[in-house]
């Protein structure tokens, strides 16, 4: 009898749940939050809260659940923790996600005086680069770790890999298209800054 007709064992079941949760965290939730920011900010100044709600309230629990399930899967597999690239990347993703959340809150509520030419603060660029880096680091588990941790009794279906690849291509394509709206965004941000500066000057007491 082919081993692929056997039901998943407890280790495989735990690993599969971990994979599904991590998928929705890093390839649905976070990209959705990124695209919300990329598109909404070109049309409205009220983009922050939809972006924050998706990245924190929706994605946050999934990130922590995915990490916990991965930790439990490693225990069940009898492996050392953080001993291979996937596990190290998982820990890095958790740390990077937390840094991203705190950095986003800092950017929103703390305004530093220094700006790059064009009017943007340096932490804004760091926040964007960190968010995209998190999404880039999510490929290793599906392609390599499943076979390593489970013994590849049930290899990952090629349709799953194609679906994953389709999601990745769609996300980056939408992000690239959104970059075409960048001139509109920068023009809108410059107008908002001018309005704030003029309002501030109008309210300076003449003493």
Automatic annotation (TrEMBL):
Residue ranges crossing the lipid bilayer per the database entry: 20-40, 52-71, 91-112, 124-143, 163-182
InterPro entries listed in its UniProt record: CYB561D1/2, Cyt_b561/ferric_Rdtase_TM
Signal sequence range: none
Gene Ontology cellular component terms for the protein in this record: membrane
Superkingdom as given in the UniProt entry: Eukaryota
Entry-linked PROSITE patterns: CYTOCHROME_B561
SMART domains recorded: B561
GO molecular function: heme binding; metal ion binding; transmembrane monodehydroascorbate reductase activity
Protein's recorded name: Cytochrome b561 domain-containing protein
Source species: Favolaschia claudopus
